[in-house]
Design goal:
homodimer; 107 residues; mainly beta; Jelly Rolls; four-stranded antiparallel beta sheet; 1 helix; 10 strands
């Protein structure tokens, strides 16, 4: 298996009970992985102290919140959650795959 | 315009003369933007000293190199270019849009 190349589809995992996470790559300064949601699943609003984060919606549709903004997002939306700003997924409206990056990486 | 939500399609830019870059978001610890290629365009092999980077191929097809690995990539491939490892785009085989993240951000 390649050290540097991965297919999102081969890593993304779904869990009927709750939103699921999978790792893609992790370095000293950056983590990338997937967040996957079945319809109706959510991710509680939370904060990463001192870490910048983005989501890219790869497929599906969801309602997301960052700070005081809430938007319905779909494939091709990039969502920016800067350090210390509360963010989360209010509800997935379809089966949804997101690429997520966090810098620095979670411990 | 939203402070936290952007559509890749509305930011991505192409240039007939060379590969084109556009910014999406930049924080103290993370930068995300786009790299866009017309067929035949490339990005010279280069290194980011002390910065981890990834590419996600959003659409199109290209031949990419990281370290000693070269692969043909398409939509859904995530390419990991850890700090100090040479990487580049040997050639875009189709019109190609990539999301790019770098941590810490370029100056």
């Amino acid at each position: 298996m390649s050290q540097f190349f991965k297919q999102i589809d081969q890593v993304a995992e779904f869990d009927a009970d709750k939103a699921a996470k999978a790792d893609l790559f992790k370095g000293a300064r950056l983590f990338v992985g997937t967040n996957c949601f079945e319809p109706g699943q959510s991710q509680k609003t939370h904060v990463h102290a001192g870490a910048d984060k983005f989501y890219l919606i790869v497929s599906g549709r969801a309602r997301m919140t960052v700070g005081t903004e809430t938007e319905e997002v779909g494939a091709g939306t990039v969502v920016w959650a800067p350090a210390d700003v509360p963010h989360g997924v209010a509800e997935a409206l379809e089966r949804t795959v997101m690429l997520v990056g966090i810098a620095p990486p979670p411990r």
